[in-house]
Amino acid sequence: MIDWLSQPWPWYIGGPLIALVMLLMLLFGKQLGVSSAFRTFCTMGGAGKYIPFFSLNLKEQLWNVAFVAGIILGGWIAGTFLTTDAAIEISEATVNDLAELKIDPPPPSGALIPTELFSWDGLRSTRGVVFIVLGGLLIGFGTRYAGGCTSGHAIMGLSNLQWPSLIAVIGFFTGGLIMTHLLLPLLLNL
Amino acid sequence: MLKLIKFLIAGVIFGIILTKSEVISWYRIQEMFRFQSFHMYGIIGSAVVVGIVIVQIVKRLKLRSIEGNPIEIEPKASGFIRYFVGGSIFGLGWAMTGACPGPLYALFGYGYTVMIVAIFSAIIGTAIYGLLRDKLPH
Q1: What global pTM score does this model have?
Q2: Which residues does chain B have within 8 Å of residue A16's beta carbon, measured at their own beta carbons?
Q3: Fewer CB in 10 Å around end: N or C, chain A?
Q4: Chain-centre distance of CA B52, in angstroms?
């Protein structure tokens, strides 16, 4: 069982399971969404005193803090008990593209991300700061401006056939394609 | 407190799914934005197809939440600029960090502790949005 769970899950398992989590949240009386927790953290930090956007009733928002605490725990469980040593099998074409950008292919240790960019050591370089800090700022700013992220818009919103969510998802890909194809080669040279 | 535990458990399940289906991998996100694999499209696509069916069932059967309230899905406010521009700004960050908000937390839990810096930055980014909100077109 553990062996089987530890293998990478194919898309046709992962996708439908994500939809079932969305159903679970509906049954709990909430809509799946992760980015709203950033707003709750601002409220918890006292931002409501200065910015009306953050003067929320904290009690009603604590569920999204519990939800993201669960995601951290889930990541820890998967990373501690359900790991394999196999390298992530990304396509040959991506390996080649990344090689041109001087990014090594996924290592056989099973690493999920390139640690030359995303590590405490990496954070000592301009490049690392840009990828981690600027990347985070863009995520926080953009998701709240758009009123949701991949879970709230792409999964919950599209499942509910909402136009705003379709526009947002088109935006996600517009930004993602611009970054990947135009800006990433420049930023990796920092 | 007890009420919150169910959301913690839902989060644990969500975190395991995101990790094991490799949604939290920077490499997978690069592959997606380069259109070089079906994996991420399969995940998002199948989640949405199953999700559409689920939402239709919930609405037609008028299902209730476990607390007995009717399940109502609040529609998002109409608009274009906020969704397209806000979405694009998020997309830039998604392709950089290789993680959307859920995966940021999952990566931190997985052991990539530096991601707490990205999470903190995202909180600051949200605060900046709150500060500029009235001046931005929506």
Answers
A1: 0.97
A2: 46-47, 50
A3: N
A4: 17
User: Radius of gyration (Cα) for chain A, nearest Å?
Assistant: 19
Residue A1 confidence (pLDDT) above 80: no
pLDDT digits (tens, 9 = 90+) for A41-55: 999 999 999 999 999
Task: Check whether A23 has a pLDDT greater than 90.
Answer: yes
Residues A164-182 have pLDDT tens digits of 999 999 999 999 999 999 9
Question: Which residue has 């094991």 as its token pair?
Answer: B20
A36 touches chain B (CB under 8 A): no
Buried b (16+ CB within 10 A) or exposed e, B86-114: bbbbbbbbbbbbbbbbbbbbbbbbbebeb
Report the alpha-carbon angle A158-A15-A10, nearest 5. 155
CB of B11 closer than 8 Å to CB of A73? yes
Of residues B5, B90, B133, nearest to A175 (C-beta): B90
Note whether A16 contacts B46, CB cutoff 8 Å: yes
Percentage with pLDDT > 70 across chain A: 100
Residue-level pLDDT at B75: 86
For residues A144-176, b (16+ Cβ closer than 10 Å) or e, as one string?
bbbbbbbbbbbbbbbbbebebbebbbebbbbbb
DSSP state, residue B38: S
Q: Is pLDDT of A108 > 90? A: no
Nearest to A172 among B7, B42, B91 (CB): B91
